Q: What sequence folds into this?
């Protein structure tokens, strides 16, 4: 890759990462949560309970995972780089602490956390910086946990949508198809890596699906005159697939727990 290509890729990355603040409300309305089984599996792979654990939930967004971690008894602090997302977080979860920051430079002391979590967010970091940062703030025996809700691409309508959006967005559309690649640096950093995969589904109105799409970086970064026709096409496709207006979204939930030795 040439220097110009690297600069262009970094510019595109920053543009996409910076787009979430403008769609924070849609993010809160549309994004799926996580089943209780995720946190059961996290505890099993880590070997420690969330109850009483000091957790830094990085890239917390509007607090979807943060609230669930707190409900499991974790002493959780949200870390969010976007001002717009942090404002939405405070509006929805005023009882939970949120600080501005990102995974590449965590604003916390060495050895101050039991768990560093990334719910749907680790791909927005630079692993050469975020992994050492997580290790720095973790206590011995602490863990770095990453997870993603992935649309189940074995479902025909999901596969058809992927094909439409890939064509319409000139390849900018993507799922999280490279989870193994994203988490590969964990073992190289000396962490003991454990992985689990869960399947679950939710049934939601079409407009919630549209909000979910709107909150994705590849839509949020588009100008309205380009974004709205694409969303209209997807709304029509969902109504054709689910005439009652209730969409069944099936997810593969990919979890990686990397434990600090000692």
A:
């Amino acid at each position: 890759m040439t220097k110009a290509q690297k600069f262009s890729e970094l510019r595109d990355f920053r543009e996409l990462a910076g787009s979430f603040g403008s769609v924070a409300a849609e993010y809160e309305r549309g994004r799926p949560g996580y089943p209780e089984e995720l946190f059961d599996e996290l505890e099993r792979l880590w070997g420690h309970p969330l109850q009483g654990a000091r957790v830094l939930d990085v890239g917390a967004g509007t607090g979807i995972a943060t609230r669930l971690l707190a409900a499991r008894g974790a002493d959780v602090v949200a870390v969010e780089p976007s001002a717009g997302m942090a404002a939405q977080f405070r509006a929805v979860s005023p009882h939970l602490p949120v600080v501005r920051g990102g995974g590449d430079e965590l604003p916390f002391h060495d050895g101050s956390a039991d768990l560093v979590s990334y719910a749907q967010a680790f791909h927005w970091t630079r692993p050469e910086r975020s992994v050492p940062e997580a290790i720095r703030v973790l206590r011995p025996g602490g863990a770095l946990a990453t997870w993603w809700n992935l649309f189940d691409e074995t479902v025909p309508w999901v596969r058809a949508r992927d094909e439409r959006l890939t064509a319409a967005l000139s390849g900018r559309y993507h799922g999280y198809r490279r989870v193994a690649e994203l988490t590969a640096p964990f073992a190289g950093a000396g962490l003991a890596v454990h992985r689990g995969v869960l399947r679950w589904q939710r049934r939601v109105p079409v407009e919630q699906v549209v909000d979910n799409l709107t909150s994705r970086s590849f839509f949020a970064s588009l100008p309205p005159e380009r974004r709205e026709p694409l969303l209209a096409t997807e709304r029509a496709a969902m109504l054709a697939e689910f005439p009652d207006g209730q969409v069944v979204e099936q997810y593969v939930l990919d979890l990686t727990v990397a434990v600090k030795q000692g």
Observations:
- Residues 224-241 form the longest helix (18 residues).
- Confidence is low (pLDDT under 50) at residues 1-15.
- The chain has twelve helices and seven strands.
- Residues 162 and 245 are 20 Å apart (CA to CA).
